[in-house]
Amino acid sequence: MVSAVQWNEGKFVNALFEYEEFFASFETGVDLNRRFDAHIQVYGEQKAVTVQYDTPYIRHLPTTRIVEETVNEAFRRTENRPSFKDAYTVELEYFHKVVTEGKQPKTSIEDAKEDLKLIRMIVDALE
Fold first, then answer.
1. Using CA atoms, how far apart are residues 124 and 50, in angstroms rounded to an integer?
2. What are phi and psi of 90, to 5 degrees?
3. Which of 27, 81, 96, 125 could bond 62 through an S-S bridge, CB–CB 3.0 to 4.6 Å?
């Protein structure tokens, strides 16, 4: 953990984590604007990939994958939707397979424990 800050009475939180070969930033916030923004971005030297979740509140709104890259002297941005199913539906269908077919969950209890450790690190840094 490099740092964590909060503002607006804790309604917004930013945290910066340092790993061996990269940094990761986390930000979250709640305000009164009527919009939703949830995404994950990964930056490379000549390419950035974004997975955009537009909103969980509109049924069947698909997730968008955005790739921005430089090839030779040209910059290219492509957007596609790998599926027309919303993320919640995909998650629910997979959970059904876990329960009915004995498939392994994509995330384990150990993964959840690691998530809780990250949350604890943020809370400790804010205190």
1. 29
2. -60, -45
3. 81
Q: Please tell me the distance from the alpha carbon of residue 112 to that of residue 75, in angstroms, as a whole number.
A: 38
Q: What is the pLDDT of residue 121?
A: 94
CA 21 to chain centre: 19
Nearest to 118 by CA among 8, 21, 26, 12: 26
Domains of the chain, residue spans: 35-85
The torsion angles phi and psi of 123, rounded to 5 degrees, stand at -60, -45
pLDDT value at position 87?
A: 77
User: By the 8 A CB rule, do 55 and 64 touch?
Assistant: no
pTM: 0.73
- Note the pLDDT of residue 123: 95
pLDDT of residue 76: 97
Helix (H, G, I), strand (E, B) or coil at 112: helix
Read off the amino acid at residue 81.
Answer: R
Neighbours of 86 (CB within 10 A): 19
d(C-alpha 124, C-alpha 13), whole Å: 13
